[in-house]
Design a protein that fits this description.
Blueprint lengths: L1 E3 L5 E3 L23 E7 L3 H12 L5 E4 L6 H9 L4 E6 L14 H9 L5 H19 L5 E4 L9 H12 L7 E2 L12 H11 L3 H11 L7 E2 L7 H15 L5 E4 L12 H11 L2 H9 L6
Parallel strand pairs: 3-4, 3-9, 4-5, 5-6, 6-7, 8-9
Antiparallel strand pairs: 1-2
Helix pairs in contact: 4-5, 8-9
Length: 294
């Protein structure tokens, strides 16, 4: 079982049992002394999935969030089940994938959410469908929940999300939720700090309040926000700065892929991220600075 501290950060009391997260295994919580490095978008394509599995095997990341309607999710789920990392549901309303009934560009979705013009019942149904598919394919419930382009924290979506989660996790075992409050960003470019602040202010506080009332754990702080430019050299500088500032319980997101895929606007930078994450330079940096994975 897990519980939150007065600050809403997670602690682990005992191993999980039954059909809950981690398939009955104890979930390793960041508050026990490490950080979470999470690769988003598992299931989007083979290049992303292979990168995640390779980096997991090399102990460069310890979590991934899944686009369950992605074309490669089902076929690569068996490998993910044995990868030894936490797996989460990447709630999606903005990536056009088969099976996604409510889908629109981020700017429009954001506007509809803040004006509360989204169909709450439809949003709830889509989240429930994605959770059900995760459970069907993975054989268990997710260890954590986050959102593609952070939509899980938006108005309407977060209320629907908690209704779905309260039904799926009525007591005891509950997944942790991605909290986008920015970590220490001293020394990072102004543009990256600004983007991180914008994401934080798009619903993180409201999500955290509801999570704490309901007993859902949260990561401590959030890193990894940038403009998806800069190639390997730029990403290496940012990644080392983020890792140097991180504290136990913090979460860093990344978006690696083995190679760029045609049609993926982030493809070139995804490949750059993979090369940095897989490099001996990063391994040596993590050892030198005693950066522990949770």
């Amino acid at each position: 079982m897990s519980h939150t501290t007065p600050q809403g950060e997670w602690q682990a009391d005992e191993p999980l049992n039954g059909e809950g997260p981690a398939g009955g295994q104890a979930v390793r919580m960041p508050a026990l002394g490490g950080i979470v490095v999470c690769a988003d978008d598992f299931g989007l394509n083979e290049a992303v999935d292979h990168a995640v599995l390779e980096l997991a095997a090399a102990r460069r990341l310890n979590a991934t969030s899944c686009l369950v309607h992605g074309p490669s999710f089902t076929q690569n789920a068996s490998a993910l089940r044995t990868a030894g990392i936490q797996t989460g549901l990447h709630v999606n309303f903005t990536e056009p994938l088969p099976g996604t009934s409510i889908c629109m560009p981020l700017a429009r979705f954001m506007r509809q959410a803040w004006l509360r013009r989204l169909d709450g019942a439809g949003v709830e149904f889509q989240i429930q469908s994605q959770l059900d598919l995760f459970r069907q394919v993975m054989g268990r419930l997710p260890d954590f929940i986050d959102g593609h382009q952070h939509v899980h924290q938006f108005p309407v979506v977060r209320e629907a999300l908690f209704r779905v989660l309260d039904r799926a996790f009525p007591s005891g075992i509950r997944p942790w939720l991605r909290y986008t409050r920015a970590g220490q960003l001293t020394g990072l470019p102004v543009s990256q700090r600004f983007k991180a602040a914008v994401i934080e202010h798009l619903g993180s506080a409201a999500l955290a309040r509801q999570a704490r009332r309901r007993g859902y754990p949260l990561n401590r702080r959030f890193m990894g926000v940038y403009d998806f430019t800069g190639g390997q050299a730029g990403y290496q500088r940012l990644l080392q700065a983020w890792l140097a500032h991180m504290q136990p319980g913090d979460l860093i997101m990344c978006h690696p892929a083995r190679q760029a895929v045609t049609g993926d606007a982030l493809g070139v930078q995804r490949e750059a991220e993979f090369r940095v994450l897989a490099s001996d330079t990063l391994r040596d940096f993590m050892v030198r600075h005693s950066v522990p994975l949770a």
